[in-house]
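The following record pairs a protein chain with its ligand, magnesium ion.
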Amino acid sequence: MISPKIQDAINAQINAEFWSAYLYLAMGMHFEAEGRTGIANWFKIQFKEEQAHAEIFMNYLNSRGGRVVLKPIDAVPESWNSPLAAFEATLAHEEKVTALINNLYALAEAEHDYATRGKLDWFVSEQVEEEETAKNLIDRLKLIGDNGLALYMLDQELATRTYNVPAPLAANA
Ligand code: MG
């Protein structure tokens, strides 16, 4: 049985993961409307990944005899001035999520909930990847600058991204 304190914290994290999903879906829709279909594809896959993160936490909470409580999802921004602005917002957001995961990890340790701490290990590594990917795209977009052809080529490249079910979810399927 999971402690009420950890249950509340995981429910808050589920909400944060859904907010992330909502944010990236909004970015996907924005860039689709702007004709940047490759960038839109990248964000729509990011949306699915965030939904999967929420699902991993929901499955875990149920497996520990806890109760999932789905709270309202706050509104997200509607538009971004450029692909660079969107990826900078992505990095800033992922840095916040990393801090949330770290806080959850510290809480699990303080509460001697080692099962939860172990479950979080995958998320700790995932956040390193999320930040690295966003930073890499920011660096490339800065190099691209105003070069329309280079941006077109990056858009084509991002169109090839496909969705892979995250490992903890694939293992449960
Ligand atoms: Mg996430």
